Amino acid sequence: MQLVFASGVFASQNFDEDLAKVDKLLQTDLPQAEIMFAELEHSLPQLTSSQLATYHTLYSIKYLYLSELDKANSSLELALSFDPSEELLTRIYLYKVTIYLMQRNYQAAFSMLEINLSRIKNYQDTSLKVASYVRLLNIFLDLNAYDEMRDTASLVLNLNQGKNTKDECYAKLYLAVATLRLAQYQQANNLFKESQIYCETNEQPLIGTMSIKGQAESYFELGQLAIAKPMFETALTGYQKFRFQPEINDVKSYLSKIYFYQQDYAKAAEYADELSKLNEDKVNQHVKKRANEVLAMLANKDGDYAKAYQYQQIAHTLDLQDLNDKTNKQNAYQMARFNNAEANRENKSLQQERMLMMQQKDLMLKEKSSSMMFSTLLFGVCVGLLLLLLTAWLQRNQFRRQAQRDGLTGIYNRQTGQDLAEDELVQVQANHNQFSVMILDLDLFKSINDRFGHATGDWTLKKVTHVIQDIIRPTDIFCRMGGEEFVLYLPNTDEQTASVLAESIRSEIESINTKYSGHNFSISISIGISSLDEDDLSLDPLLSRADIALYESKRQGRNKVLIYQPAFA
After folding, report:
1. Where among 369, 385, 404 does a domain terminate?
2. How remote is the C-alpha of 274 from its chain's centroid?
3. Domain assignment of residue 131, yes or no
4. How much is the pTM?
5. When you count CB atoms within 10 A of the terminal residue's CB, does the N or C end of the chain come out lower?
6. How does 505-523 read in b/e, with b if 16+ C-beta sit within 10 Å?
7. Do 308 and 164 belong together in one domain?
8. 37 domain-assigned
9. How far apart are the first and last CA of the chain?
């Protein structure tokens, strides 16, 4: 596109057209959009209030691409001060939702979305509703709510019917992403191809680049690395045009692994070194994890096993942090929804109470024969309030249970399991009884993910969990530490009894038939055990000794049960 400038201002002086061009360039050519922003800045005194609102809204998009969230929010606040139109106001609210999501402020994001949805629910024009649902898709993506994401994307496509090509592009992309995250890789690949063709045809190159990356991820998960590699490289070039740094880093982390598997060790090391030095922002956790996994493989290839172990430990720590962050995000979102629902119920209750008082005053002026009607009404309102309170109580309990459980396996998460075990330990020590701890770690689990994909890895974790749950007692506390590592707390159990139980678990897991996963492979587990000493004051020393025994079990060849011995330390 050739632009004509004159004396530092636009030759056309049609600022509405100029702003429309900037809006389009933000989706196609960010450097050129920045040039137009600079030219428009000289003309700000000539812009109307409506045009200024649009200008500052578009400027916030530039900051969003650069992850400068505070500046983006300031631009939106400035846009609001110029009394934007209803359509632009919706757009501003939705960009604010995006900023809150990126800042992990789920309460504010959900509240802002609620305000916007309630504001437009009576509109006849579906375009504003479609835009709000598209932003809701962003929430579901960030919270790993892929079933809800897929359903909402389908709803957007039904409502939009191709009227707004940008929203249509986003909906097609989100539908493909949800399908990918649900491990339906071939179907996802077809959906990404469809979104790429549609979005590139309708001049949405950034979404087209995202679709290319989605196809590359599908091929990567299917193990077709030779096809995935050039598509990742194409996506990298596309993202670099927009300086979309989070996506640039993500693509490089995939390419680093592919280069290693294709024995291009120099390129693998180049990207892995670069990514491992990224700052500690949460957005970089999964990228740094992949980078450290590649560095571990490179060190192992070179025979530097100490450094390989160090890199693998860093990757494991980042994996745990990423898992905890996902759990925190889901809990925060659930609480945000719950708090908004509670506020709505409270408002309804206050309105009901006010209506009740007015009706009571009116009824007092009527004949005594109407007292039965009042009593019936009062009883009905009380029953309604009781049902509202009961619903709130049930929802609170449900959210509490969700916060205590591991999202994949359904057993206790690390923190909940340790809290329960600490309480049991206090009781055991008071009664001078035994207490044992068992740490269990699946052998070579990473190779299952690498060879057969993460869906098979998830199947393995859930299958192992079910096998162990069928063996242990109801009083035992079973939780997932993170990744492929579990811990079993055994109140009133000595180390020999724990050893017998551990051997039973090891044997059952070894005999798991994996054909129902769609692949044939073997599963084994290493187990370390420790028991309560009279000097122990908390779980920490028991867990430390059990971890040492587990490490020794791995060192001796895996698929073993070992009780901690001082000689291991």
Report:
1. 404
2. 24
3. yes
4. 0.49
5. N
6. bbeebeebebeebeeeeeb
7. no
8. no
9. 69
